[in-house]
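Hey, quick one: can you model this chain's 3D structure?
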Amino acid sequence: MTIKSWALAFAGVISLLSGNASAALVTLNGNGFTAVYDSALTGLFGTPTLSGDGKTILFSPLNFVASSTGQGTVFTTSNVQFDITPAANFSMNGVSLVENGDYRLVDRAGNGPLAPSVDASGELRLTNLWNGVDVVTTNFSAGTLTNVCATSAGCGFSPWSASAFLNTPSDWADAGVRVRIQNYLTAEAFYAGDTATIEKKQASASLEITPFTSAVVPVPGAVWLFGSALAGFIGLRRKVSV
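Sure thing. Here's the predicted structure for all 242 residues.
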């Protein structure tokens, strides 16, 4: 078994020992990689699936909502993680995350600084499964969401979207990678009749998987010289002994 295989196997054992007793590991066979996730720990993200070309992991969340109807701040959070193992002779160059949903704001009184508001944000994190130590992270946000209605009658939902991208460091080579997505939805409405609602409807993590070729390590010149000298010495010794 290679060092890589031992490292990935060890990481899997640790994950199982530290996980939920009812954990059920599920494997998705993608194009150039496998993705393993715990079906008991998908949270509000729901069950992931693969895109038609097998390069993107898709989530269709249900009930991932934050809604306030005059009761102040309502906060909803959830996260999901999955372990990516590149196929033989492949490496993972990065992860591109795209999320979207919709929101609705009703500000009947025009309350200025205390007007209803919503927010969608999160963190994308990659961990090197070879050692469990090397980590890269980035934050993302849907930005300022400002479409507001003065009355609930005829007030529809407006779309929001957010995205993030992380490269894997070059020294990770063909290492397995744990991808973790953390999401936060916030809705604030402080007055009776005001409404703030935001929902996450879809997320996709597109993995950049490319063929990997280990660099050929050149033999130092000194080794070639030593080899030539040794061959000459052996030849001379044979000649003398004849």
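One thing worth noting: The longest strand covers residues 90-106.
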